[in-house]
């Protein structure tokens, strides 16, 4: 069995360590706040007395802390030659690229990862971790990585897993923004949200989410026309929603930046195009 260390025992690091222990690995744990090692030691983990004890040559070190500055703050003073680092800390593509170069220059193997799961999902079906960086590291540690979540290698560019992670989070936060605004509207009518969510909103979002397949194909092909609903019609709908929010006494409109984009595209004469064409306003493509 591989010698595995987990550095960082927040909610996610604790879930990662617990899952590897349950799978039968020998796991060494280290955390700034030492008391967080206790439940894992009770499960059979070895507590490292200091960080260097957890980051030993030949070991697989999975790091999961707040951010990349913390990763560098912790590992900057530690010998890394012969260590394999799998960094499951969330961050930006550029941070991942710089960290990969930095680790490799110091003699460590480096794989970056984006965790697409909450701690409760780790080790269970449905959890996904995107990896990018060293293919050799990914292949060598396929077994323990596969025990944490579905392990998907996306590219040798270390920045790609964080980029895709952020793109997925962007979709999620956009959806949450819309849900929040929709909830406010239903609340303003004095209705409970439970029935609205289960009988109306969730089925609707599932059905509409499917449109992303079609839009993705159209954007890839540079097709901006539509037989669904053009930007002119969507502009009327978004104007009307903004007005209704005000009439219902709702503070703010989280859709405002999106509405601004639709307004601009229509003002530029593209009212016959579909919603998928808005991506052109954000990036022209490569
Ligand atoms: N939780 C999730 O659902 C989730 C999902 C996907 C990705 N992630 C990512 O996983 C990473 C960890 O998230 P988490 O939920 O486990 O966060 P968390 O519970 O807040 O834990 C943060 C960890 O970072 C450590 N830390 C923070 N500042 C530090 C410093 N200056 N020096 C040393 N250690 C420091 C903390 O140590 P102490 O215990 O000593 O404070 C703790 O181990 C983040 O990058 C997050 O984006 C989390």
TrEMBL record:
Keyword Oxidoreductase attributed: yes
SUPFAM superfamilies reported in the protein's UniProt record: NAD(P)-binding Rossmann-fold domains
One Pfam family matching this protein: NAD_binding_2
InterPro entries from the UniProt entry: 6PGD_dom2, 6PGDH_NADP-bd, HIBADH-related, HIBADH-related_NP60_sf, NAD(P)-bd_dom_sf, RedAm-like_C
Residue stretches making up the NADPH-dependent reductive aminase-like C-terminal domain: 157-282
One function term, GO molecular function aspect: NADP binding
UniProt entry keywords in alphabetical sequence: Oxidoreductase
Annotated ranges, domain 6-phosphogluconate dehydrogenase NADP-binding: 4-150
Family: Belongs to the HIBADH-related family.
Protein name per its UniProtKB record: 3-hydroxyisobutyrate dehydrogenase-like beta-hydroxyacid dehydrogenase
Organism encoding this protein: Nonomuraea endophytica
């Amino acid at each position: 069995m591989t010698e595995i260390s987990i550095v960082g025992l927040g909610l996610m690091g604790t879930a990662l360590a617990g899952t590897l222990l349950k799978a039968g690995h020998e796991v060494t744990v280290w955390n700034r706040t030492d008391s967080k090692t206790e439940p894992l030691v009770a499960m059979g983990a070895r507590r490292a007395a200091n960080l260097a004890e957890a980051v030993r040559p030949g070991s697989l070190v999975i790091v999961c802390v707040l951010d990349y500055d913390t990763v560098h703050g912790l590992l900057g003073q530690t010998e890394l030659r012969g260590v394999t680092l799998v960094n499951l800390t969330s961050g930006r593509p550029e941070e991942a690229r710089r960290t990969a170069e930095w680790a490799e220059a110091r003699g460590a193997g480096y794989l970056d990862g984006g965790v697409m799961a909450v701690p409760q999902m780790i080790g269970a079906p449905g959890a996904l971790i995107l990896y990018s960086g060293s293919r050799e590291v990914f292949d060598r540690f396929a077994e323990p990585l596969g025990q944490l979540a579905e392990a998907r290698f996306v590219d040798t560019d270390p920045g790609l897993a964080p980029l895709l992670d952020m793109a997925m989070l962007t979709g999620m936060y956009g959806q949450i923004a819309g849900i929040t605004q929709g909830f406010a509207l239903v609340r303003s009518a004095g209705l409970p949200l439970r029935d609205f969510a289960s009988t109306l909103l969730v089925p609707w979002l599932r059905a509409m989410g499917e449109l992303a397949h079609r839009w993705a194909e159209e954007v890839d092909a540079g097709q901006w026309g539509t037989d669904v609903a053009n930007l002119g019609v969507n502009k009327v709908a978004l104007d009307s929603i903004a007005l209704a929010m005000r009439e219902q006494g709702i503070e703010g409109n989280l859709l405002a930046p999106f509405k601004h984009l639709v307004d601009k595209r229509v003002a530029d004469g593209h009212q016959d195009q579909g919603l998928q064409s808005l991506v052109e306003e954000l990036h022209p493509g490569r």
